[in-house]
Amino acid sequence: MELKGKIIDFLGDSITEGYGVSDKESNRYDNILKRECELKAVYNYGIGGTRLAHQTNPSEKPRHDLCFCGRAYNLEPSADLIVVYGGVNDYLHGDAPVGQMGDRTPATFCGAVWWLMNFLKTQYKDKPLVFMTPARYCGKGEKSDLLPHPHPCKLPDAKPLLFYVETIKETAKQFDIPVLDLYHNLGIDPHNEEQRLSLTVDGLHFNDDGHKIIAAKLKEFLEAL
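^ that's the sequence the OP posted. Answer follows.
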């Protein structure tokens, strides 16, 4: 895909919003991509704490409940491409049931992934659509993303982070949506203390150097489409 002169919508959470970046205009991954690929414009729809699925019980911060499915209606219609990057907050503190493949409702995680992909493919049918999966996660003092997150709001059906990654990938196959798998291919693993300290601010959010890596991976992925 030729990126020069393109307009891209970015729908995401706090990583896309730029939490942890020293200068969002210069060092956030979407703006790095804009500069390096000579994009015409980027529209950033990143809101910290947000999840793909609906929240059953209201969060302490109402802004966190502005789920991806609800915000998908508000994207810039002139964009040439839509990039969606999320799912880690569903793993961390989303209280929606995981559900199962075949769900069609944003009330479960599996259903929300399907609903969002179906809506974007239908609403913006002439525009390319790309999803990015969550990357590896390991907050300070936490053991591993190979386990369900211990947040008290999580239901008994909560899964390890990889389940959320694989659900995005498997659902995308139904819609022929390309997926950049950052869990396996970003090359940043905060379980490695050196990488956590040098490339993230807390094991979840990336610093300036981490955003450079995301931008480079996304650039390579998009140009290969």
